[in-house]
Records
---
Amino acid sequence: MARHKLDALPDASGIYIISPSSAVADPTALDRAQSRLSKMGFKVAIDRTALSRHQRFAGTDVQRLAAFSRAIKQKLPIVMASRGGYGVGRLFPSLDWKALENSGKRFIGQSDFTAFSLALLAKTGMISYAGPTACFDFGGSKTEILTTEIFCEAMRGELEILSFETADADSVDCRGVLWGGNLAMLTSLLGTPYLPKIKGGILFVEDVGEHPYRIERMLNQLAQAGVLGKQKALLLGGFTEYKLAAHDQGYNLKEAIKFIRKTVGIPVITGLPYGHTEIKATLPIGAKVGVATEKGMAHLVLDEHVH
C-alpha cells in the first residue's frame, strides 16, 4: 500500500474524544489513546462523560447528546469517537444538524459511527471521515504504523493518493462522491431520511462478524432498493471474524461477490485497506474522489489537485 503526499496544509492539532455509542469497556484504553495521540503532536481532550455507562451505552441518550453539544462548542478541530458498538442512531431525531454543520469540526470514527457520518452527509452535505477510533486504534497494546501515518496525513491535508493491492478488481477509471462505511449500518438507514441520495458515487463497505451470506443479503438489499446500481464503483474493504459452515458447501465470500457482480453490473474492487482491521485508511465521506485500477493495483485519488 502506497501513499503520495502534497505539501502539508496547516496543522490540525487538536482532538476531542466523545463516546456516542457503546460504553468503553476498558478505561485504560482511553488513557493510552490520549497519551499516544499527544505524542503524535495532537492536543487531546476527553469529554467528561466519555466513560459514562447506562445499560450497554456510554451514558443515557441525554448524556450522549450533550457530549455532541460540548464537542461542537469547544475549540479543538477534530472530534473522534472513542469506539463503535451501537447507539448513535438513537440520537438522530434530537441532534441539531445545523449546529453540527456550522461547527466546522472534522468528525471521525467507524463501525456504528458510520450511521452518524452518513446521516450528517444526508442532512447537511458535510464531509466527515471514516477512520480510526480512539480505543481500538490508539488504545491497545500497540498501534499500527500505517493506520497512524495515514490518519495524520489525512487530518493535516497531506494525503493525496491511496494505492493498494487488489487481487480481484474490475477495470475502472471514474470519479464520484466517496461514501459508505460499515455495511450493516449503511443498510439499516434504508428507508430513512438519514441515508444520502448519492448518484454516480463510489461506495465502499466493510463489516465484522457477518457470514458471507449476510454480506450478500445486505448488498442484494442495497441493489434491489436501487442504491448499488446508481454507483460508479463498489470498493470492498475488510470482512472479518466470521466462520464458514460445513453446509456452505463451497459458498464463501468470493461466491457472494461473484453474485453481486453478476446481478448489479457495476465495477467491483477488492482489497481496500479499511474495516475492523489493524490497518485502516482514513477516508473522506462525502468528498469527490477518483478511482482507477491496473493489474493488481487500485488507486484512490483523494485530492482535487490531482489530475
Note: The first strand starts at residue 2 and ends at 5.
---
Amino acid sequence: MMRVLVTGGAGYIGSALLSRLANIQSVEEIRVYDNLSHGRHGVFFGATKSSKIGGEHKISFVRGDLLDRRTLASHLEGIDVVIHLAAKVSTPFAHGDPHSFEQVNHWGTAELSYIVEESNIAQVIYLSSAAVYGASEHPVDPQAYTKPRSWYGVSKLRGEKMLQRLSSHKKIHILRCANVYGFAPSARFEAVINRFLLQAHFERKITIQGKGEQQRAFIHIDNVISCILNLLGSPLESGVYNLVQSNRSIIDIAYALKDLYSDLEMIFVEQDMERHSLVVELSPEISDHIKRIDFIDELKLFAQRFAF
C-alpha cells in the first residue's frame, strides 16, 4: 500500500488528479499540501465525494507553505511518494517578480529535497516545465541545451537540480510539462488555450499577440494526470522526460475555435513584433501514457462545462 503527498494539490492539475489518485486501490492515503495562494478552491466542491469515486476517506488537506520546513516535514512523515506540483506559475515567456519565482520554485523545492533526502520517501514525481528550454524552432529533447527566457523557467530549472541530487538513491522522475489545457475544478485561464476558449465562448472574440505564427507545446490535463499515475511505483529510471501531446501555432488554435464559433472575431496585437516559438519532443519512454484525441473534440468537451 502507498501513502502519497501532493504539494499544490488544490491547484489546477491537483484538483483533477485527486479523484483519479483516490480511485487507485494501492493508494491508501493522500495528503494535499497547499497554501491556497492561487485563490482557487474548486477542489473542495464535489469532485472527490464518495458518491463519485469511492475514495474521499483517503484524502486530507493541510494548509502549508513549501518554505515552512517544520510543517512540511511533519506532514511528510510516513509518506512513500511525493507528487510535487506546487509552484508559482507563469506563461512560458512572461516576465514577473524574480524573487517570488525563486523563493517558491527553487528554494521551496530545495526545502522539499532536503527533507526527502533524510527520509524513507522512495519516489518524487516533479512537474517541471518546458519553459526551461527557452525558445526553439526545432523540436527539443531532454538532452537539449536549456536556456530559459523567463524567471519562471529559471526557477523551475533550479528546482530540477535540487531534486536530481537525490537520483542515485531515490526514484526521481522530472516531467518537463508543456502548456496544460482542459477542464479541472480549479482550472487556470492565464494560458492560451483555456483563455481563448473562455473568450470565444462568452465574448466571441480573442486577442492574438503578433501574427499568431509562433508555436507552443501543449498537453491536455487528462494526459498529464495519466502520466503521473502511471509513474507511481514505476520501474522507469530516474531522469528528465518531456511531457507533451502536440505542438501548435497560435493561429492554428484560433482557427480551430473558429470551427466551433463561426462568428468568432480575431484581434491581432503588435503584428510587427517577432514572437518566439518553443517546439518540444515527447520523450518516448512515456509516450504510451499519452492518449490521442481530436483537438476539436477536446475543445467541445471543455465548452460543455460552461454554465451557459
Note: The mean pLDDT is 93.
